[in-house]
Amino acid sequence: MARTSPLHWVGVTFLFIASILLLITTISAPVIGDIAILKVMLSNKTDIRHSSVTFGTFGHCVLDVAPVQTDQDYCYPRHVGYKPADIISAIDGTPFSKAASDTVDGLTRVMILHPIACAVAFIAFALSCGAGVVGSLLGAMVAALAWVLTLVVMAVDFSLFGVIKNHVNGHKVSHAYYSAGMWTCLAAMILLFFGMFIVLFTCFSARKAKKANYKTNADYTTTTTTRTRRKRFGLL
């Protein structure tokens, strides 16, 4: 049947992978210090030390700092919303304008959408696993919601961390670049888009096939009944 076609399960797989990718972005620094949305390599880099700041969904970590004898990583408490502009200013000594700082600080609160989008994407995956017409339709609708949430939070990520990145690289004291957490969010957005349409397509394909099968069975039943009646009355 169309509802269990390989194409349907391709869409379901896309939704599952997207939820995993969003989970990776969600557990970025300070949950896991080495996973970052934006990473800043600090100017005190040496052959022994490669100090950096990793910014994630709920805060930041400072990695590989002194003393030389130990491998020190400091991850700060998790918060919904934090102040990356103030953090960079304190470390690099390159202050932001008040407008830029306030804008960046405010946008960090929107990153709460990372775990929300992750949960919604997983719900879409679970619904689509039902493989029925209703399950596929609900899965596609929930996947559409997850896609919108991911698109919004990804745009926020690029906006707020773009300001930080341009500021850091513009002063040429340290070097900033987008890290794994940004690209997993982007990949999740793409997979959700295609997964949503594949699941929706298979939903309508299954419904069309079901109607065609019902019509065929109805025609066959009508023909059989007519022939039986003719035989009964000696018409054949």
Give a verbal description of the structure.
With 236 residues, the protein is an alpha+beta fold. A five-stranded antiparallel sheet has the order 4-3-2-1-5. A hairpin with a 4-residue loop joins strand 2 and strand 3. The longest helix has 53 residues. The chain is elongated. The mean pLDDT is 86.
Please outline what is shown here.
The chain has 236 residues and is of the alpha+beta class. The protein contains six helices and five strands.
Itemize the secondary structure elements and their pairings.
Blueprint: H1 6-26, E1 38-41, E2 52-55, E3 60-65, E4 72-75, H2 84-92, H3 98-107, H4 113-128, H5 133-171, E5 175-178, H6 180-232
Antiparallel strand pairs: 1-2, 1-5, 2-3, 3-4
Helix pairs in contact: 1-4, 1-6, 3-5, 4-5, 5-6
InterPro entries: pH-response_reg_palI/RIM9, SUR7/Rim9-like_fungi
Keywords: Membrane, Transmembrane, Transmembrane helix
Pfam families: SUR7 (PF06687)
